[in-house]
Amino acid sequence: MAAYIDPHIHMISRVTDDYHRMALAGCQAISEPAFWAGFDRGSAAGFRDYFHHLVDVEPRRAAQFGIQHFSWLCINAKEAENVSLSRDVIALIPEFLERPTVLGIGEIGLNKNTANEATIFQEHVDLAMRKDELVLVHTPHLQDKHKGTLMILDMFKNDRRVRPDRVCIDHVEEHTIRPALDAGFWVGMTLYPVTKCTPERACDMVEKYGGERMMANSAGDWGRSDPMAVPEFMLAMRRRGHPEALIHKVVHDNPLEFWQKSRRWPGLAPRP
Ligand SMILES: [Zn+2]
Question: Of the ranges 28-37, 221-230, 254-263, which one carries the lowest mean pLDDT score?
């Protein structure tokens, strides 16, 4: 069975049976970015517990199914509207950064494109640059996406320390993928069963842009989402007659190549 990687899935919101189904479908490794918990947390201490979940608890649950679990740390854009809480959370991150399964800072980004969100985005980028970390970026959904993506690309351009090949712009769609790729960033196509980008639309984008620096992920979050979205994308690519080498590049080699840039990268375990 062809191995795949899901580079963006929120397993905290999934049941254990999902790990079983993902393992059956060939999932070798995943990465879980820190995000909104379905509710606004009341204190920085809530985030410390969440980071403990991401770096200790979830890797153990994944390991029962032979899946390697990696994570990204930050305060998400939705809760970043609260600047003082955000600064308290950012101050917590360094103590977790030396954990071997942490890949970098993420998913930072914008939600409603507000000034507070932009301030906290830039403070996260500053932390990432000072600590030589990879960055994973959430772009806003629906009507705010285009403007938010351009704001994010501008903020990166204004920080000369940022190297685009160490940053992935996630949730790209047809109207935002080109500026991100043209500027040298990695991109993630987040596949949803109903709204937003479908597996078929992701195939269209691979056909148009070729697959270089492109990845596909499922999000697997609190909304309607499908932890099997990456295998669905692989199936859609096969149905269109694309070669296995191209499919493997997008769903395995590309996320791996990006992760390997992390200064703590521990390597993938051989498949059982
Ligand atoms: Zn996410």
Answer: 221-230
Q: Which residues have CB less than 5 Å away from ligand 1 (the ion)?
A: 35
How many whole angstroms from 35 Cα to the centroid of ligand 1? 6
* Structure tokens given for 266: 């521990």
Q: At what angle do helices 199-209 and 229-239 cross, to 10 degrees?
A: 60
Q: How far is the CA of 33 from the centre of ligand 1 (A)?
A: 6
Interval 220-256: pLDDT, tens: 888 888 999 999 999 999 999 999 999 999 999 999 9
| Ligand 1 center from residue 37 Cα (angstroms) | 11
Contact status, residue 227 vs residue 191, Cβ threshold 8 Å? no
Domains and CATH numbers, the chain: 4-259 (3.20.20.140)
For residue 138, the CA-to-ligand 1 centroid distance in Å is 7
Distance from the CA of 177 to the center of ligand 1, in angstroms?
Answer: 17
Percent of the chain's residues with pLDDT above 90: 90
User: pTM for the complete prediction?
Assistant: 0.96
Give residue 272's pLDDT band: very low, low, confident or very high (50, 70, 90). low
Ligand 1 centroid to 108 CA: how many Å?
10
CA nearest neighbour of 110 among 139, 136, 89: 139
Give the Å distance between the CA of 32 and the centre of ligand 1: 8
Q: What is the mean pLDDT of the chain?
A: 95
Res 97: pLDDT: 96
List, in order, residues 6 or more apart from 208 with CB less than 8 Å away.
Answer: none
Q: What is the pLDDT of residue 38?
A: 86
CB atoms within 10 A of CB 210: 13
Ligand 1 centroid to residue 182 C-alpha, Å? 23
